[in-house]
Design goal:
single chain, 285 residues, alpha+beta, Porin, 11-stranded antiparallel beta sheet
Length: 285
């Protein structure tokens, strides 16, 4: 249900009486891509495991150890959840002459973009089928916010796109509940809570904030710290020398990240919260 909610048709946040609909095609495209790769690898590794059944079970005592380590490589797609303010006015400084036309923000889109992450895995045994995991990582992400401005009679439109790039240090603590091992295969669900530190936020916060006519050049500024909850599922394959895991996970931020600024792009938004879909490959020994 979580992923259905994330992939369903989304409509742009509406400030005036404009009604436009838009599907998040980039998110759907990348998730389909991840799922296709996941299914191909799943069948390939299942066949490989079956070929080894005649020789015994790989890593039979893997989960009897109290703690083990590994690393992870991940792809992600990130966007924002936006709450807007109504009736944001903006003096149109791009029109030549003494035109005093004022534009209102009619719609705001948030466009997801792909990124990647690398990290470490620390896995501690709490029970036969319950693990506590700490997987710190560094993640690179980018989001775009597109503004459509129009005058009162709707005969003048302008589109502005603002890009927010981030480099995160992510510190998640999660609980992994796995199924009983079937040969060299097991499945699991995972969930937890974490902290994200945006290393690029200081650079964004230090940007020029002019207000007035030059505010067209201003960008969205976001706060450095965020807390999020995560939920996901995955599969583990026990190979001869290590365990290979595939995992897909949704991370939803809980803090309002907007750092207010004196420009139309910040003033038209009330709250910004982050959201990320992550597809992970884990290697544990």
């Amino acid at each position: 249900m979580v992923f259905y909610w994330f992939l369903r048709k989304r409509y742009p946040l509406k400030i005036n009486n404009f009604t436009q609909y838009k599907i998040r095609l980039p998110v759907i495209f990348y998730l389909k891509k991840f799922l296709f790769i996941f299914i191909i690898l799943l069948f390939s590794l299942s066949y490989f495991s079956q070929e080894n059944d005649g020789y015994g079970i790989n890593l039979p005592k893997f989960y009897k150890t109290k703690i083990h380590f590994g690393f992870t490589i991940a792809g992600n797609t990130t966007d924002y959840r936006l709450n807007t303010k109504p009736n944001s006015l903006f003096p149109d400084t791009l029109l030549k002459g003494k035109d005093t036309t004022r534009l209102r923000v009619s719609t705001i889109y948030t466009q997801p973009a792909p990124g990647f992450a690398i990290g470490l895995v620390t896995d501690a045994r709490l029970h036969d089928y319950v693990r506590l995991r700490f997987t710190p990582s560094i993640s690179f992400a980018s989001r775009k916010i597109e503004y459509t401005l129009a005058n009162k009679t709707r005969d003048t439109f302008k589109v502005f796109q603002k890009t927010v790039e981030s480099t995160f240090l992510i510190f998640p603590f999660e609980t992994k509940i796995q199924s009983k091992r079937l040969g060299n295969f097991s499945a699991y669900i995972i969930g937890g809570y974490g902290y994200a530190l945006d290393l690029a936020s200081r650079k964004k916060a230090a940007g020029v904030v002019t207000g007035g006519p030059n505010q067209l050049e201003n960008n969205i500024r976001v706060k450095r710290d965020d807390f999020y909850y995560s939920v996901g599922a995955g599969t583990d394959f026990y190979l001869q020398y290590f365990k290979l895991g595939f995992e897909i996970k949704l991370q939803v931020g809980t803090r309002n990240l907007l750092n207010p600024g004196n420009n139309i792009f910040s003033n038209s938004i009330d709250k910004i919260r982050s959201r990320m879909v992550v597809f992970c490959l884990t290697f544990e020994g």
